[in-house]
């Protein structure tokens, strides 16, 4: 079968949202409630989006359990970001946080409660009171199922507001007209294998992360970076892709996440000597230092031979001292994960953990309204008309070089809502849809028909496996310049193999082989963006730790290999020509004083 222009059906909406995770559904709720005709596409049933797996909490300075205010949260987020986060966006997020959390509470979100009825809050990595003095309780939690509670709450409110869901529909490409404006998307209906054009005044990408470019990942299998691939293929750059977060506590061997909420509740990390080694690396915050810090410390322990187990390749997370009652009340899923994935009863013994890929700090560049921005002429942030992005696929940038735990769920709520509000305002001014260009579906038809024609060729999963192997080897917790340079060459070679993937099964109905092959087109964009951006950044910052760029010997107080004079700037990677460009970090908040760069100790 060949896909042709004639067998494409067309539909029209005010807004098409790609992605039904927390960010997509927070935005769609705003739009549907304002009476807009909004379609939300998702590869899976909405409540199976990766947001459902979020465990630990959503950050907001409510101050329910210890003294707190948004200025502390603002400071922590900037320091956590290793000064790569934009301070205007960070101020906006931290100020809005209490509002969006209370709003969620009023939507019916079943938060855990304190005896006085207020929302329960637990400590989390890098969140402090009084500018780094001591840990603060800022993570609003529903046991260790916060994302689950949040996603179901948002889904129910969307059903009430009559949002239209297109479940098991996979968006394939953006449609941009001759002026560069986005006027819709192409999408594959998985059940039938039919191709559709969804025309819209506005398209919002909310496709989540791409953790599946790595072998060991806490991410869902659907996290293949589709929105990033769609953006990259249509000429939009990807920002700060060298920064990937390793979560300190993935179950060794399984990759499944054990929330930082464990350490928030008092769990500690131990090496083979039974030593609480984080006391040495981060004397103030100890096990609750930010993730890049803890992951590096764990890797260092393992490198120096103090890892546990027969191969000395993991450390232990000890929880039993919290008591079975607290564990069953606050961390019920962690208990189950211990039994099911490590055969460990965490109320009795410690569980083996290793740093595991968890989150992408980079993504599609946006402003604080969620509008996608690009460099044009002498402008660093020219808006792409008709295109927004929110959630993990976007880079606004509030997380900079390292995200603090609980700030992602917060990012979804704050920027999902802000983008929704902005689109409503914009939609009122746009009376008509712009016409579809004649070549609207050409790129998609070419991709689909290449697969239809290719009987021989490699299995998509073999090529995807090679991408993962390269990333795991050349873009790890500790990076080396020579190894990254080698990774750049290898990933370019894998791209050639992506173009030669074969599809043996040409059936139309629920053909998952076709879907997986199309996903590899997105994986390769994200992987190449990561490898090329990483190899070019000649310093250490946040999650990007390169052994070649350690602290200069003659300057013991310099930040660990961080080079603010040359590298305090955002990377932009373009798929066309595989080239890089840079733009400045915004160190100017909206209303308060800037937090000047300093050495990052905890
Ligand atoms: C195990 C785990 C635990 C976490 N815990 C926390 C936590 O406690 N606190 C915190 O702040 N953060 C946490 N995070 C991070 C946070 O959960 C995620 O960053 C966030 O939920 C991402 O939300 P999202 O809306 O951007 O995307 P997702 O929730 O990933 O949703 C993406 C959506 O896009 C759809 N989609 C993708 N591609 C396509 C396509 N081509 N066509 C159609 N639809 C598509 C998917 O079907 C899905 O609906 C955790 C992450 C993980 C993996």
Automatic annotation (TrEMBL):
The keyword Cytoplasm does not apply. One of its GO terms (biological process) is electron transport chain. Keywords: Cell inner membrane, Cell membrane, Electron transport, FAD, Flavoprotein, Membrane, Oxidoreductase, Transport, Tricarboxylic acid cycle. Its EC number is 1.3.5.1. The keyword Flavoprotein applies. FAD binds at residues 19-24, 42-57, 226, 392, 408-409. Residues 466-601 form the Fumarate reductase/succinate dehydrogenase flavoprotein-like C-terminal domain. GO terms for molecular function: electron transfer activity; flavin adenine dinucleotide binding; succinate dehydrogenase (quinone) activity. Substrate binds at residues 247, 259, 358, 403. Its main location: membrane. GO terms for cellular component: plasma membrane. It is found in: Cell inner membrane. Its cofactor is FAD. PROSITE patterns: FRD_SDH_FAD_BINDING (PS00504). InterPro entries: FAD-dep_OxRdtase_2_FAD-bd, FAD/NAD-bd_sf, FRD_SDH_FAD_BS, Fum_R/Succ_DH_flav-like_C_sf, Fum_Rdtase/Succ_DH_flav-like_C, SdhA/FrdA/AprA, Succ_DH/fumarate_Rdtase_cat_sf, Succ_DH_flav_su_fwd. Belongs to the FAD-dependent oxidoreductase 2 family. FRD/SDH subfamily. This is Succinate dehydrogenase flavoprotein subunit. It comes from Variovorax paradoxus. The lineage of its organism: Bacteria, Pseudomonadati, Pseudomonadota, Betaproteobacteria, Burkholderiales. The gene is sdhA.
């Amino acid at each position: 079968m060949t896909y042709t222009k004639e067998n494409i059906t067309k539909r029209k909406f005010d807004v098409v949202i790609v992605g039904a995770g927390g960010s997509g559904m927070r935005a769609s709720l705003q739009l549907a409630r304002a009476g807009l005709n909004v379609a939300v596409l998702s590869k899976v049933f909405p409540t199976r989006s990766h947001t459902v797996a979020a465990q630990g909490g959503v950050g907001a300075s409510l101050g329910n359990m210890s003294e707190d205010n948004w200025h502390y949260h603002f400071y922590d987020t900037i320091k956590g970001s290793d000064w790569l986060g934009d301070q205007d966006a960070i101020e906006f997020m931290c100020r809005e946080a209490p509002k969006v959390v209370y709003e969620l509470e009023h939507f019916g979100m079943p938060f855990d409660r304190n005896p006085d009825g207020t929302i329960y809050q637990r400590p989390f990595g890098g969140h402090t009171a009084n500018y780094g003095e001591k840990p603060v309780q800022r993570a609003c939690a529903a046991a260790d199922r916060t994302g689950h509670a949040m996603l179901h709450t948002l889904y129910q409110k969307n059903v009430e507001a009559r949002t239209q869901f297109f479940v098991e529909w996979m968006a394939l490409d953006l449609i941009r007209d001759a002026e560069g404006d986005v006027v819709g998307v192409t999408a594959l209906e998985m059940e039938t294998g039919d191709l559709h054009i969804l025309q819209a005044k506005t398209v919002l990408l909310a496709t989540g992360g791409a953790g599946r470019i790595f072998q060991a990942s806490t991410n869902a299998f659907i996290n293949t970076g589709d929105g990033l691939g769609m953006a990259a293929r249509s000429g939009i750059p990807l920002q700060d892709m060298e920064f990937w977060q390793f979560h300190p506590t993935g179950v060794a061997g399984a990759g499944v996440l054990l929330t930082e909420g464990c350490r928030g509740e008092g769990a500690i990390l131990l090496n083979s000597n039974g030593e609480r080694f984080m006391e040495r690396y981060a004397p103030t915050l100890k096990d609750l230092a930010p993730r890049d810090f803890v992951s590096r410390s764990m890797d260092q322990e393992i490198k120096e031979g103090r890892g546990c187990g027969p191969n000395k390749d993991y450390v232990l997370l000890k929880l039993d001292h919290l008591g079975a009652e607290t564990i069953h009340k606050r961390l019920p899923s962690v208990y189950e994960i211990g039994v099911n994935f490590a055969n460990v009863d965490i109320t009795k013994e410690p569980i083996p953990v290793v740093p595991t890929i968890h989150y992408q700090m980079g993504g599609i560049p946006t402003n604080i309204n969620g509008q996608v921005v690009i460099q044009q002429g002498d402008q660093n942030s020219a808006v792409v008309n008709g295109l927004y992005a929110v959630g993990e696929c976007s880079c606004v940038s509030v997380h900079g070089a390292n995200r603090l735990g609980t700030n992602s769920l917060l990012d979804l709520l704050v920027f999902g809502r802000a983008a929704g509000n902005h689109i409503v305002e914009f939609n009122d001014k746009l009376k008509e849809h712009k016409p579809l260009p004649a070549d609207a579906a050409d790129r998609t038809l070419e991709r689909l028909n290449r697969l239809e024609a290719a009987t021989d060729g490699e299995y998509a999963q073999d090529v995807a496996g090679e991408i993962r192997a390269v990333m795991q080897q050349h873009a790890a917790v500790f990076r080396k310049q020579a190894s990254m340079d080698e990774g750049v060459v290898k990933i370019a070679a894998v791209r050639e193999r992506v173009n030669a993937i074969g599809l043996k099964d040409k059936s139309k109905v629920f053909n998952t082989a076709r879907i997986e092959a199309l996903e590899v087109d997105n994986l390769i964009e994200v992987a190449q963006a990561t490898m090329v951006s990483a190899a070019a950044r000649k310093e250490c910052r946040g999650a990007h730790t390169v052994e070649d760029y350690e602290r200069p010997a003659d300057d013991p107080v310099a930040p660990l290999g961080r080079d603010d004079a040359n590298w305090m700037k955002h990377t932009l990677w373009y798929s066309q020509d595989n080239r890089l460009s840079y733009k400045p970090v915004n160190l100017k908040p909206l209303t308060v004083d800037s937090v000047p760069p300093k050495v990052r100790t905890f």
